[in-house]
Design a protein that fits this description.
2 copies of one chain form a homodimer. The first copy, chain A, has helices spanning 79-89, 130-145, 152-162, 218-228, 232-252, 256-275, 286-302, 324-337, 346-349, 355-359, 365-369; strands spanning 10-17, 19-23, 28-30, 35-36, 40-44, 51-59, 66-69, 72-74, 95-97, 102-104, 113-120, 174-178, 189-194, 203-209, 307-310, 317-321, 350-352, 388-394, 401-403. Chain A is an alpha+beta fold and 419 residues long. In chain A, the strands form 5 sheets. Chain A has a 6-stranded mixed sheet, with helices on one face. Chain A has a 5-stranded mixed sheet with strand order 15-16-14-18-17. The first copy, chain A, has a 4-stranded antiparallel sheet with strand order 2-5-12-13. In chain A, β3 and β4 form a beta hairpin. The radius of gyration of chain A is 22 Å and the shape is globular. The two termini of chain A are 26 Å apart. Chains A, B: This is Diphosphomevalonate decarboxylase.
């Protein structure tokens, strides 16, 4: 190792996407190792619109492991952080940075402390799987820093120890988390089914739903479901395995009708087992129900699915449109039903890929007010103003990448402290 | 038969209660015979507060079967009415009314037409099982008129052909609908588990929840669930049979903790299979969820259940309090959370057994405004004014009775037409 007195700082910055499950993960068979009761399948969301950026750094000058999330220092003492740090450290290998003249041996890593800074480019509290992107990014960046030569699947098994669904954020496109059989969890990891270019017509619109209700955390919720639901085991053992096979086929064949049917029914069944939990868990609210009803009526009238919906542990709708044309129609319908409050501006009401607004012919707040009523709506006089906080337009996206542009680093290259 | 020219009219008036299932009926194995996929158990509600009154009459002067519901003539051509009429007619026996000098033989009934008038003492559209009370009353009154000497269980099997849950309204107290095995449905009928005096501390508060949403009818809903839910059969075959046995025990032993736990989890599981239906069925709304949350928190804090909740095919909450003291507390909490709109009057906001208001210390609208915030509520500044249309306070009640007071007859004794 280089002289400690030299006070060098070595760092790596990575960017990792979030993901949305289309066959849901709900229920652990092992709480500590985070081993699920069934396989799950997800779509990775474009990191341009939803991602975590994490800078990890190491220096002999650091006297303890520290972490900052969105600029605020947080504790690393939790078991989940410790699991990830321990697992990556144990896989660290020699690092030689010729440019900086730094040599770190496999053994040195045991004594060196790290600084970590992480930032989500979307609201953490919005229920958009920030912990999935976060733990995936932490593990990916640490593995790069410590030269842990594991492939993405092996890293996914480590990220899984931080947050189950994080394992699916190690790949872009379409990803399967295989539940595995090993009781130590070595085979519970993610594999890529297809990359993001495989099915690039899909457009994803997220409705971030206003909610006053305190939600049950997914950790607590799934524990309660495992302990009390009399339907969960039937779902996990009898229903999901067949759906996984069908969903893999649907993705392989870009069969939107099957994809949508499976995604919608599986989302609903996940919420059904939540309701079958004691006490019952309600993640969807009346706004979520209205969005489902709109999509179901549209799909039914069209004769074949135009849009798939899926809801995670919260009221937000993730809507997957079969193509860009359908997405523009979807945005029109959604903006009609859920216009912004009068003090809003369009720029902060529709985020992400705003070009969809042009396709939808909605380039001003006034245009929202004069949209035609969708035929799916019974009472067009009833518009649910303010019930959706904002929309994010996005698409399937790539997996983790290392960022080399220093301006994107979250830690000061000299001090290893937040910029 | 007496001379047709005499134009005599013979009539019977009966009153039949409604009922609320505490182990739910959802799903038919035979659509025409209305045979369920599982047993169910209900509590009969006091007819003083919720009942149907039906007058059935016969006269040689009637040239067709006719029926009036709440004063408005309705068609009897539907299969369900026809099944009930046919089944009762086939069981008719000789009638001899000495006072009026009328003799009707078993054979005469085939040619005679009936007039029927039915009236609910509660809003039909409120989703309070009006069809259950209605068909039970129709069958019970016709059986009396036609001297069909069947016991209540046999009549229940006929009422079942009108509306499945109607069979449970042939008895007071606590009633089990045995699904039966016979493919013709002869053994699918109701039996009384205990009469209403067996457990008379129970107090029932119904919250009639305001809703703009058009609900899926239970007939359509349960058909869709049978056809599409992958959880229903598991519920019907594996879960409900065990719950039925436990619920029978709980009722027998007046074990409120078990009763409440079973009623709540079974209500939630019924709504879970609705959600697992394609397209999903939502009967509960945000107000329903808030009421469940209030009760769950209260029960949890008390260490043992104080109140059970159950929801049928709509957003209304049926709340069963362990005793009158608990019911008074329940009414306080509910009135705090769901006060009436400012233009309401207390008399039309709390219906049924209004004496509970005195126990709750709420004898004016002003008293509602100054109620203390329940500890279960996180944000006491948020009161959901107008979200409950009205409350009905009631209790377990008796089964069908014949009314002899002519002033309660719904048809004119001379003409057989609505009064």
């Amino acid at each position: 190792m280089a002289e400690e007195s030299q006070k060098w700082v070595l760092m790596v910055t990575a960017q990792t996407p979030t993901n949305i499950a289309v066959i849901k993960y709900w229920g652990k068979r092992d709480e500590t190792l985070i081993l699920p009761v069934n396989d799950s399948i997800s779509v990775t969301l474009d990191p341009e619109h939803l991602c975590t950026t994490t800078t990890v750094s190491v220096s002999p000058a650091f006297d303890q492991d520290r972490m900052w999330l969105n600029g605020k220092e947080i504790s690393l003492s939790g078991g989940r952080f410790q699991s990830c740090l321990r697992e990556i450290r144990s896989r660290a290998t020699d690092v030689h940075d010729k440019e900086k003249g730094i040599k770190i041996t496999k053994k040195d890593w045991e004594k060196l402390n790290v600084h970590i800074a992480s930032y989500n480019n979307f609201p953490t509290a919005a229920g958009l799987a920030s912990s999935a992107a976060g733990f995936a990014c932490l593990v990916f960046a640490l593995a790069k820093l410590m030269n842990a030569n594991e492939d993405h699947s092996q890293l996914s098994a480590i990220a899984r120890r931080g947050s189950g669904s994080a394992c699916r954020s190690l790949y872009g496109g379409f990803v399967k988390w295989i539940m595995g059989k090993d009781e130590k969890g070595t085979d519970s990891l993610a594999v890529q089914l297809a990359d993001e270019k495989h099915w690039d017509e899909l457009v994803i619109v997220i409705a971030v739903v206003s909610s006053q209700q305190k939600e049950t955390s997914s950790t607590t919720g799934m524990r309660d479901t495992v302990e009390t639901s009399l339907l969960l085991q039937h779902r996990a053992k009898e229903v999901v395995p067949k759906r996984i096979l069908k969903m893999e086929e649907a993705i392989k064949n870009r069969d939107f009708a099957s994809f949508a049917q499976l995604a919608c029914t599986d989302s609903n069944q996940f919420h059904a087992v939540c309701l079958d939990t004691c006490p019952p868990i309600f993640y969807m609210n009346d706004t979520s129900h209205r969005i489902i009803s709109l999509v179901e009526k549209w799909n039914c009238a069209a004769g074949t699915p135009q849009v798939a919906y899926t809801f995670d542990a919260g009221p937000n709708a993730v809507l997957i449109a079969r193509n860009r044309e359908t997405a523009a129609l979807l945005v029109q319908k959604l903006l009609f039903c859920f216009p912004p409050k009068s003090d809003a501006d369009l720029n902060s009401f529709v985020l992400g890929d705003k070009s969809i607004l042009k396709d939808a012919g909605v380039e001003s707040l006034e245009a929202i007010e004069s949209l035609p009523a969708p035929p799916e709506i019974k009472d067009p006089s009833q518009r649910h103003r303010g019930d959706v906080s904002y929309f994010i337009c996005t698409r399937p996206g790539r997996g983790p990448v290392v960022l080399s542009d220093e301006s994107q680093f979250l830690l000061n290259p000299e001090t290893g402290l937040p910029k």
